[in-house]
Amino acid sequence: PQDEWKLVQNTNEGLVFNRRGRAADQPTASLLTAIPAGTPELTRLPLAVSGRHELAIEIPSVDRPSLLIFHRPWYPGWQAHLNDQPLPVVGHQQVAIAVSLPPHATGRLVLHYRPPAFVYGLPIASLALTAAIGCCVMPGRQRATESLPCEKLPS
User: Which string of b and e fits 12-35 if b means at least 16 CB within 10 Å?
Assistant: First the structure.
């Protein structure tokens, strides 16, 4: 039904809708904590920063290994840092962004999206632009053989 959905963003790229209720008001991530016997414990944590290329969340003290799942599509290029220490980012079931948290992890976790194509492509594009400008700015040069007059060789 239309009354369940709320328009949260309208850009030239498209429309973004959230379901009304708690999820629409406060973006969250799911913390799955392993339990020795049984199903993992699920806790919802609010996001401190919820941007297009950056996410941040405060991690409470976790005494067992855990998996933090962000409700965003996973693409290669996400990087995670917990208190400025890098952590591996994986695709949870190849769909959502997930970060494995070590035991006793606590602090601020920050994710940045830096796809490899951007990291390597930007310097290459900059060099190509510099070369193109250099070719346009440099004065035209003639070949040395074309600029010299023809000389008759003595016979």
Answer: eeeeeeeeeeeeeeebbbbbbbee
Residue 119: partners with Cβ closer than 8 Å, 6 or more residues away: none
Instruction: Please give the distance of CA 148 from its chain centroid, rounded to a whole number.
Output: 58
DSSP string computed for 13-76: TEEEEEETTHHHHS-EEEEEE--SSSSPEEEEEEEEEE-SSEEEEEEEEESS-EEEEEEEE--T
Whole-structure pTM value:
0.61
45, β-bridge pairs = 29
Predicted confidence (pLDDT) at residue 105 exceeds the cutoff of 50? yes
DSSP3 helix / strand / coil % (the chain, rounded to 5): 20, 45, 30
DSSP 151: -
CA-to-CA distance for 115 and 145, rounded, in angstroms? 49
